[in-house]
Specification:
Blueprint lengths: L6 H15 L3 E8 L2 E12 L2 E2 L4 E3 L4 H7 L3 E3 L3 H4 L4 H6 L3 E8 L5 E9 L7 H40 L3 E6 L6 E4 L2 H6 L3 H4 L7 H4 L5 H13 L4 E8 L5 E12 L5 E10 L1 H14 L8 E2 H14 L5 E8 L2 H8 L1 H19 L5 E8 L2 E7 L5 H14 L4 E3 L2 E3 L3 E7 L6 H17 L4 E3 L2 H22 L4 E9 L5 E12 L3 E3 L1 H11 L2 H23 L4 E5 L2 H4 L4 H8 L8 E6 H4 L3 H13 L3 E7 L6 H6 L4 E4 L1 H6 L4 H17 L2 E4 L5 H10 L3 E2 L10 H9 L1
């Protein structure tokens, strides 16, 4: 019996019990945890023969009682006791004894049952023998289950390994990475069969690694193994057909009881296609599609690597801005502009061939190019020399279609020793280019003076934004005078900024900052809020309220709730007392929007004035449609009209047009009695300027004009 293994042991046990007990039927069945109500017969010895094994339902059978108790004995009448047990009824057995098959930890694996066709008195020794036999069967069955599970695990592992798109392995931690286990995927990956790699029969895995990658791969693997971490590494291998493939490997070291790494286990995938795809994406990402030059990203990447790896080398970055490029697009079309940019790129590439110091040419924006050079000790002199060379590249006009076009450039430069990063180097050149454009220069280099200027402007911007956020701006008021009577009929509220560090800052400066920072609308709201608060105070103190004008920017007009915001701020004040001034140029940014907003504001009672009239080139047709009350004549015309007849004619025309349209006129910038008298004679109704009074704080204005 002990020499038999697995099912043979259990079959022999059933046969032996039948002979020893002279039993008609002996059955051994197992029950699984995932199906506890079903018995699966392992062997069934009946009337001297083994019967086919089947499964049956335990419900309503004596076997069900066996599994719920230690044993179950029926000396007679078992069929009558269990009428729903179909198999029992088919056998026609009269007696039944069953014992559970228990493991060492008393888990029930199944049952052993003996049945006779005649009533049988089962003595106690018989029951004990059956329990011993059941224990033996349970031990063998448990071993059988372990063996089956192991075989199934091995089968699944083998299936999984051979189903992987790459190669699974186990190898020694030696200089060749000698393979002990290799999945079938090795052939598709390398062109070598599994048996070629196992024990280095034909080639060692270490010999497949590309020579240029060998050291990096082994260092990465051993470094991760020392930290007891997974390693992940991408490298090249040389396949059986000498083809180079990219692979990605992940694995981990396996240590013995002493903690020594003796093996590595992991898997390796072919990532050649992904690597080539990434290289293609990188090529696209780093190349300007129109000109084929390096783009902004490629330039910054190159410079970043140079900053990291070659800290001793200085560079000169020259930024070239193509003048009048917009005119080319407008005159000849976008296709001509694209053609011009390609020709410029080609000229730069051709010219750079004669200059070894030129290491990179890039197109960074629409009409801006960069030439990067190794810097010499001459610095600014080098920039001027390079600018001269670049200018010579374009001495010959470029042929765009049928047109020969001159290509003038504006150039700026920056040096890497002044910049801490690639992005800062390019930014410095852009700052110098902005400076060149502001002052109509052909050349500009970012130097200490420009750096101080930029730092001062940045500091000024930060201080202004802080003052705006904290509500530290104030207002001043300049009187508006009735030219006929000389009486003050109103005032214009003007924003003022006094900083503890910077002192009084010109409105031209901080309004420009607000425009660049996109906070003009917020600035306008603050001025209107402070003005309305002051007007409410005047109304309570003096019982009278002069008309006050407040400037409104185009950004405020573009706000979706501009009318509702104005009404909320001016609540408690008669809308007729507030005049909203918007410049003619701002009105013409979006005339249709301006028409809509001005009409709504007029409907709520606000007075509207067009500021700096005569400078914005608005058509008479629009002027007729705008719902305005006042035209403010620009100070440039007022101050020139005494000596310039054309300016006088223009002022006269504006006044006459306003009278025709039923609008008031206010002249700005009046500085002399002669100007005031002439304006009065021409029919202008109001005026403001230093001749009548400068902008003053609210307290001084009230004392002078209200008390």
């Amino acid at each position: 019996m002990r020499e038999a293994r697995e099912l043979a042991f259990i079959e022999n046990l059933a046969k032996l019990l039948s002979e020893l007990l002279q039993a008609d039927h002996v059955m051994i069945a197992e029950v699984f945890d995932d199906s506890p109500t079903t018995a699966n017969i392992i062997t069934f010895y009946s009337h001297g023969e083994f019967q086919p094994t089947v499964s049956y339902d335990l419900d309503g059978s004596p076997c069900e009682q066996v599994l719920s108790t230690e044993s179950c004995v029926f000396n007679k009448g078992v069929c009558e006791s269990f009428p729903r047990d179909a198999m029992l009824q088919q056998l026609g057995a009269a007696s039944y004894v069953g014992v559970p098959m228990l493991t060492a930890d008393q888990s029930k694996l199944g049952l052993l049952a003996v049945l006779n066709d005649q009533p049988t008195d089962y003595a106690k020794p018989v029951l004990q023998m059956l329990q011993i036999a059941a224990a033996q069967a349970a031990a063998e069955l448990a071993q059988l289950r372990i063996s089956r599970n192991l075989q199934e695990s091995q089968r699944r592992l083998q299936t999984l390994m051979n189903s992987l798109p790459g190669m699974a392995y186990r190898c020694l931690n030696d200089e060749h990475w000698t393979m002990e286990i290799v999945s079938r995927g090795a052939y598709d990956l390398t062109g070598y069969r599994s048996q070629d790699l196992i024990n280095n029969n034909r080639i060692a895995w270490g010999d497949l690694i590309h020579p240029e990658d060998t050291q990096n791969v082994f260092e990465a693997v051993l470094s991760a193994a020392k930290r007891q971490q997974y390693f992940r590494v991408t490298y090249r291998i040389v396949c059986a057909n000498n083809q180079i493939r990219w692979v990605w490997e992940q694995g981990k070291g396996v240590a013995n009881k002493a903690g020594e790494i003796t093996h590595f286990e992991g898997f390796i995938f072919d990532v050649t296609e992904q690597h080539e795809h990434q290289e293609h994406i990188a090529e696209i990402a780093f190349r300007d599609e129109l000109t084929g030059l390096a783009n902004r990203a490629a330039l910054l990447d190159y410079l970043h690597n140079e900053y990291e790896s070659n800290k001793t080398q200085d560079y000169l970055l020259v930024l070239l801005d193509l003048k009048y490029f917009r005119n080319v697009n407008e005159r000849f079309g976008l296709h001509a502009g694209d053609r011009l940019l390609r020709l410029v790129a080609q000229r730069l590439q051709d010219g750079a061939k004669d200059y070894e110091d030129m290491v990179k040419i890039a197109r960074v924006t629409g009409d801006e190019f960069v030439v990067l050079l190794r810097s010499s000790n001459e610095k600014v002199e080098q920039f001027l020399t390079v600018a001269g060379h670049l200018k010579k590249f374009f001495e010959t006009p470029l042929l765009v279609g049928e047109h020969q076009l001159d290509v003038p450039f504006r150039m700026s430069g920056s040096f890497s020793y002044r910049a801490e990063s690639a992005a800062e180097l390019l930014q410095q050149a852009s700052i110098a280019m902005y400076e060149a454009k502001q002052h109509e220069l052909d050349y500009c280099v970012f130097d200490e003076a420009l750096q101080r200027k930029v730092s001062a402007e940045r500091h000024q911007t930060e201080r202004f934004l802080q003052a705006l956020a904290q509500g530290e701006l104030s207002i001043a008021l300049q009187p508006q005078i009735d030219l006929a009577t000389g009486q003050c009929v109103g005032a214009e509220a003007l924003c003022r900024w006094y900083d503890q560090e910077l002192g009084h800052v010109s409105p031209a400066i901080f309004i420009d900052i607000a425009r660049k920072q996109g906070v003009l609308a917020e600035l306008g709201i603050q001025v209107l809020t402070k003005t309305c608060s002051l007007m409410k105070e005047w109304q309570q103190r003096y019982g009278q309220l002069p008309k006050v004008s407040v400037n409104v920017g185009a950004q405020q007009f573009a706000a979706p709730d501009v009318v509702e915001d104005f009404l909320s701020i001016c609540k408690g004040i008669e809308a007729q007392a507030v005049t909203l001034e918007i410049t003619e140029s701002d009105l013409m940014i979006d005339p249709q929007l301006a028409l809509t907003v001005t009409r709504r504001l007029r409907d709520h009672g606000f007075r509207l004035a067009i500021d700096d009239f005569g400078t914005g080139y608005s058509s008479l047709a629009y002027l007729q449609q705008f719902a305005v009350d006042i035209l403010k004549i620009d100070m440039s015309f007022v101050q020139a009209m005494i000596k310039d007849e054309s300016s006088k004619t223009l002022v006269n025309t504006i006044i006459a047009m306003a009278q025709t349209l039923g609008l008031e006129t206010i002249a700005e910038g009046i500085e002399t009695a002669e100007q005031a008298q002439l304006l009065k004679e021409l029919g202008c109704q109001g005026g403001q300027g230093y001749y009548f009074g400068r902008p003053v704080p609210p307290e001084e204005f009230a004392k002078t004009w209200l008390e």
